[in-house]
Amino acid sequence: QVQLVESGGGMVQAGGSLRLSCAASGRTFSRYDMGWFRQAPGKEREFVAAINWSGGWRTSYADSVKGRFTISRDNAKNTVYLQMNRLKPEDTAAYYCAAKTTNRGYDSWGQGTQVTVSS
Fold first, then answer.
1. Cβ atoms 13, 118 nearer than 8 A
2. Residue 110, SS3?
3. Are residues 36 and 18 in contact, defined by beta-carbon separation less than 8 angstroms?
């Protein structure tokens, strides 16, 4: 497994932007598929975005964030980012990054960072 630490959460007004970062430990970060998930109070954790290797780095997004959020990575810094633009109150949640260190799905998780969007 790998240690993941998120940062960059906070409070922002609707329409604003935030950039989340997830720093990973270890020397093999560049091999891992990475994802962002979120969990709002009283709701289940849901997929937000992922960046996976498939002959090149490919990104995917939940329909609810497509066109507003961008996932990226800097392998030299062992970091994955989530740029969030045009934030909405319904984006309020704890955001978690996750890594696939094996082919059995996401098996390493960060502690989460809170994002609160006010209307």
1. yes
2. coil
3. no
